């Protein structure tokens, strides 16, 4: 990632002075067609370019509406595979303190926006095989990861839904788990990871729950998004999760479960330490524009008077109309 930044392949996406995303050059060239919405700057202070949503958009609804127009245009032009999976489902784009806008879920990889999801590890304690884990096989008609194996229950954290609320909702829709069972959910923290594909950038954080189920419970799908379920002993699950047949962005959740329950250990895997670290990537370290800018300003203030007045530390940007100031 650091190499990409140094080569200017990825720029911060800034809203209201806060970095909320990451934009690659192949997306940037299409955003340049919308100068009334995006201001593309080259910042000498941070040694890094950036893409800023027009600061003239002053509230949540206006930012959402203006960005939505661009996204629908890009979708109609068929420019990005990610937008072919348009769902009319929205994720909130947040700063540290508040939500700034909402964005169509399918578009979030194009802007490198942090996404949050909820996952449930459903398992049983078998008298012969020990811990066995329920996995689902995604429907072949799914827009994303069709036919891939996945953890038993998972879903994105959409606008208007809380974490536990999402877990209960997805448990009912994907696996028909009744409330008298799902009420026994045990929070197991979260995993965070960074993944890149032809769809875009995936800085994901997944809230994880464990759910011990009765031996006689068999999950049944009710929303048409799952074609099969399979109960696997932990050893077989280890083998399955490391194959190309498993959904890449769900593998960390299952691997985390297997580590916590002692089925993947340092004695078993040479790269154990690296695997554990990759399950908890400090994603905040990718969103450092504001901190870097503040650091640069402090450095500038500490320079002698003549150096402090030098133009080399100023913010250079393209001259654009419609709500953006021109450089003078």
UniProtKB/TrEMBL annotation:
UniProt xrefs under PROSITE patterns: NUDIX
A Pfam entry, by short name: DUF4743
MF terms in GO: 8-oxo-dGDP phosphatase activity
Chain ranges of the Nudix hydrolase domain: 115-256
Entry protein name: Uncharacterized protein YJR142W isoform X1
Origin species: Drosophila rhopaloa (Fruit fly)
């Amino acid at each position: 990632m650091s190499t990409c930044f140094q080569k200017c392949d990825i720029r911060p996406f800034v809203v209201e002075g806060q970095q909320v995303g990451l934009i690659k050059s192949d997306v940037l060239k299409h955003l340049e067609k919308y100068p009334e919405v995006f201001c593309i700057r080259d910042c000498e202070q941070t040694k890094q370019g950036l893409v800023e949503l027009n600061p003239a958009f002053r509230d949540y609804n206006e930012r959402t509406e203006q960005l939505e127009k661009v996204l629908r245009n890009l979708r109609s032009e068929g420019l990005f595979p990610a937008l072919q999976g348009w769902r009319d489902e929205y994720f909130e784009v947040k700063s540290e303190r508040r939500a700034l806008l909402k964005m169509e879920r399918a578009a979030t990889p194009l802007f490198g926006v942090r996404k949050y999801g909820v996952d449930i590890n459903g398992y049983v304690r078998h008298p012969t095989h020990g811990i066995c884990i329920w996995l689902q096989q995604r429907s072949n008609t799914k827009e994303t990861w069709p036919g891939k194996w996945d953890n038993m229950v998972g879903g994105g954290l959409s606008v208007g839904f809380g974490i536990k609320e999402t877990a209960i909702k997805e448990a009912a829709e994907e696996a028909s788990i009744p409330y008298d069972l799902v009420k026994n959910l045990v929070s197991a923290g979260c995993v965070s990871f960074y993944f890149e594909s032809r769809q875009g950038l995936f800085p994901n954080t997944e809230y994880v729950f464990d759910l011990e189920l009765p031996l006689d419970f068999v999950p049944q799908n009710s929303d048409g998004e799952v074609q099969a379920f399979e109960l696997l002993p932990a050893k077989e699950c280890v083998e399955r999760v490391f194959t190309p047949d498993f959904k890449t962005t769900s593998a960390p959740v299952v691997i985390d479960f297997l580590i916590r329950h002692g089925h993947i250990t340092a004695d078993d895997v040479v790269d154990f330490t690296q695997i554990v670290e990759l399950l908890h990537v400090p994603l905040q370290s990718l969103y450092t524009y504001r901190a870097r800018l503040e650091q640069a300003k402090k450095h500038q203030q500490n320079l002698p008077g003549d150096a402090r007045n030098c133009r080399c530390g100023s913010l250079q940007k393209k001259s654009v109309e419609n709500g953006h100031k021109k450089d003078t």
